[in-house]
């Protein structure tokens, strides 16, 4: 099903368009971060009984669906904080930052109750990632169907956030699995964002025929969210240049030859030859950005039209206010810095409440943030 063919030559036929840096850029293209006011916000812990949760979603049952790296998929009642186990995936192998990671629900869940998850396991003794589709029935998950397999995994740099587009395609982020050269290797699925149909087949309009690859040159993308048909991603840099990217069909995002913007002599040359897409935001020093969501609700009006980003290293929630076109970040505000520890992912309810999971390794929390 997957023909990993000579794709780099095809990439060279794509149009090059360099992103312009904002006028708010400082010495490395960073938008200054300012403390955000919590005067008009409320926050409370719904539960502290999680262990390394990775994904949190608002479910069709009006509960929060959560994955934990050890293999558990659970739902949490936002009114009580009560946790109900949905499924424990016994073939999950959690090593370091690996394990059960991304999850997304079918957008028409009432009629098609499908749950898509991605996780690491041992395949003949080799640490590997696969994407599996389950059917939700009787309060549990049944009928697993493997959609993608043989994606390199490691104890770091797994990426693994999932999103479904408005036209019902499944997008999967994969980090370089701690081997940076994989990101530019078109014969290797690591360091890529992949796009498949919901049955696992490869869309005919993918940029590289016969391949699920949508974009390449990624180090460790841990956030993914659609805003209309525009796809935003957050990505961990190495020692510099954590990024927010707009994901564009067939584009090269530079790693490991480019970190952040194309702003050194070597990077400029590589970017021109390889049509590298630059981020719309970069951070140096690094902040370790993870889960990403988009806020467009009146319940917290000051956050409307913003990306919300869960941050691990700086233990904070960042509000990234977008410009009117959605192509750049105008201001960045920090919330709850240091209050709850490392923040992994975000979900938003239909009534505008924001839910954050932590990744501290013990007594991990689900936090609810609302407007007063």
Automatic annotation (TrEMBL):
Top-rank taxon: Bacteria
Q: Where is the signal peptide?
A: 1-18
* Pfam families recorded: GSDH
Source organism per entry reads Mucilaginibacter lutimaris
Q: Does the keyword Glycosyltransferase apply?
A: no
Full protein name:
PQQ-dependent sugar dehydrogenase
* Alphabetical list of InterPro entries matching this protein: 6-blade_b-propeller_TolB-like, Glc/Sorbosone_DH, Quinoprot_gluc/sorb_DH_b-prop
User: Which UniProt keyword terms apply here?
Assistant: Signal
């Amino acid at each position: 099903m997957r023909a990993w063919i000579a794709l780099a030559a095809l990439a060279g036929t794509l149009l090059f368009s360099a992103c312009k840096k904002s006028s708010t850029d400082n010495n490395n293209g960073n938008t200054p971060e300012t403390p955000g006011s919590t005067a008009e916000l409320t926050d409370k812990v719904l539960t502290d009984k999680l262990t390394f949760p990775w994904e949190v979603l608002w479910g069709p049952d009006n509960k929060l669906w959560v994955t934990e790296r050890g293999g558990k998929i659970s739902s949490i009642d936002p009114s009580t904080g009560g946790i109900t186990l949905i499924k424990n995936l016994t073939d999950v192998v959690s090593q370091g930052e690996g394990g059960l990671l991304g999850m997304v629900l079918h957008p028409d869940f009432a009629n098609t109750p499908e749950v898509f998850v991605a996780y690491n396991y041992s395949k003949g003794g080799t640490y590997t990632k696969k994407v599996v589709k389950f059917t939700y029935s009787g309060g549990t998950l049944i009928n697993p169907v493997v959609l993608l397999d043989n994606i390199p995994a490691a104890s770091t740099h797994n990426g693994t956030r999932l999103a479904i587009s408005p036209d019902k395609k499944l997008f999967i982020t994969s980090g370089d699995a701690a081997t940076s050269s994989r990101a530019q290797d078109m014969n290797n699925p690591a360091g890529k964002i992949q796009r498949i149909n919901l049955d696992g087949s490869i869309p005919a309009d993918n940029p590289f025929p016969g391949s699920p690859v949508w974009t390449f040159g990624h180090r460790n993308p841990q956030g993914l969210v659609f805003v209309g048909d525009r796809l935003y991603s957050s990505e961990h840099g190495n020692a510099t240049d954590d990024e927010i990217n707009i994901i564009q069909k067939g584009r090269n995002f530079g790693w490991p030859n480019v970190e952040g913007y194309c702003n050194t002599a070597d990077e400029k040359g590589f970017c021109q030859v390889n049509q590298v897409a630059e981020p719309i935001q970069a951070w140096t020093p690094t902040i370790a950005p993870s889960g990403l969501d988009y806020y467009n609700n009146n319940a917290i009006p000051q956050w409307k039209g913003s990306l919300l980003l869960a941050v691990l290293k700086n233990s904070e929630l960042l509000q990234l206010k977008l410009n009117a076109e959605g192509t750049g970040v105008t201001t960045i505000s920090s919330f709850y810095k240091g209050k709850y520890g490392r923040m992994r992912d975000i979900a938003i309810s239909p009534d505008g409440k924001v839910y954050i999971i932590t990744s501290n390794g013990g007594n991990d929390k689900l936090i609810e943030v609302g407007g007063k």
